[in-house]
Amino acid sequence: MNAHSKIPDIALDLNPAPVPEADRNRLMESLGFGKVFTDHMVTIRWTRDGGWQDAKVTARKPLSIDPAAAVLHYAQEIFEGMKAYRNDDGRVLLFRPEENARRFNESARRMAMPEVPEELFIKAVEELVRVDRAWIPSGDASLYLRPFMFATEAFLGVRPSDEYVFCIIASPVGAYFKGGAKAVSVWVETHYTRAANGGTGAAKCGGNYAGSLVAQAEAYKHSCDQVVFLDASEHRWIEELGGMNVFFVMKDGSMVTPPLKGTILPGITRKSILTLARERGITVDERPYSFEEWQSDAKSGRLVEAFACGTAAVLAGIGTVRHADGEFLIGDGQTGALTTSLREELVNIQKGMSNDSHGWSHPVGA
Ligand SMILES: *Cc1c(COP(=O)(O)O)cnc(C)c1O
């Protein structure tokens, strides 16, 4: 085995001053999304000569990097988002973590970064979840895990960095949208786009988000929760939201979702919904769906529901669609019945409340 394929042990250097239990309980009472953080983090370094090394769980603390670190100039950075759930009998479950590990490495390849061996990725996530177990909420809340990797080499030339840090932080989270299960409103962005053919749209990289923020700001300006991006070449085909995939439910019971062609992030929630829906006998077409079609289908009643999906929000019904020339409702503007029922089915699997016939739940032992 060479240095690059060896899985390092993860040293435990525990926080000597964790948040006291009473303060933690108070923090966990009113969770938003990504505002409260746990006591620990994982860091693992990579160098071209030495591979993965110096893996440890430590107190969560600021990172020290050189001002010339490549990530600060050329945005060589990728991330993942996943959740740990505590179920009613106290078991701790991750949902399809091997899918996150695999996608992380797809993102890494696209951004000319080293791959994290899947075994190391999952071991590091499990270690953090074990150490910060007290921070996993029960009920509808969960512990959001954010693995990420960035280029640390101090060098202003333009080429892939020779040094990286892989890090994982964790945040107990409640509902992603303030309105809870209420349907969200979306802004259809007809000027700015998110990803072009041959670009980085299928990689989970910070840069995609940086480029989407001005459109997200437009959405807020129009009192919408999220942006819907259209394709970059024709500004006609619906792609996805800033950080979520999208599905459409037709009156005849079938569903439509845009196909993965390199400009859309291949969501694990999307993939899971495709499986669950098809198992119910629902026809799901992965096909291009245009904004024109969306408008006319909503108007004619051919379209009855639409929802956004991703780890953070799970499934969120889309009620109102706003755009430069007006707005329209989907159905009666509320979260639809199929959206609600698919959401429940998925959440029950994630929380270990139903039979996991797909092997999607990954228990984390004590
Ligand atoms: C993470 C992400 C999603 C959703 O992926 P999940 O694996 O379902 O969480 C969708 N779109 C974008 C742009 C994303 O970054």
Provide a descriptive summary of the structure in words.
By secondary structure, the chain is an alpha+beta fold. The chain has 2 domains: 11-173, D-amino Acid Aminotransferase, Chain A, domain 1, CATH 3.30.470.10; 184-350, D-amino Acid Aminotransferase, Chain A, domain 2. The chain has helices at 21-27, 70-74, 97-110, 118-131, 206-221, 268-279, 291-300, 337-350, and strands at residues 11-12, 40-47, 51-59, 77-79, 82-86, 92-95, 142-151, 163-173, 184-189, 226-230, 238-241, 245-250, 255-257, 284-286, 303-310, 314-323, 326-329, 361-363. The radius of gyration is 21 Å and the shape is globular. Pyridoxal-5'-phosphate binds next to helix 6.
What is the strand and helix layout of this fold?
Layout: E1 11-12, H1 21-27, E2 40-47, E3 51-59, H2 70-74, E4 77-79, E5 82-86, E6 92-95, H3 97-110, H4 118-131, E7 142-151, E8 163-173, E9 184-189, H5 206-221, E10 226-230, E11 238-241, E12 245-250, E13 255-257, H6 268-279, E14 284-286, H7 291-300, E15 303-310, E16 314-323, E17 326-329, H8 337-350, E18 361-363
Parallel strand pairs: 1-3, 9-10, 9-16, 13-14
Antiparallel strand pairs: 2-3, 2-8, 4-7, 5-6, 5-7, 6-18, 7-8, 10-11, 12-13, 12-15, 15-16, 16-17
Helix pairs in contact: 3-4
Uncertain parts: none
- Number of DSSP-assigned strands: 18
Strand content: 25-35%
Overall residue-averaged pLDDT value:
95
Sheet having the most strands: 9 strands, mixed
Number of domains: 2
The Cα radius of gyration reads 21 Å
The assigned CATH architecture of the largest domain is: Alpha-Beta Barrel
Discrete helix count: 8
CATH topology of the largest domain: D-amino Acid Aminotransferase, Chain A, domain 2
Helix percent band: 25-40%
Shape: globular
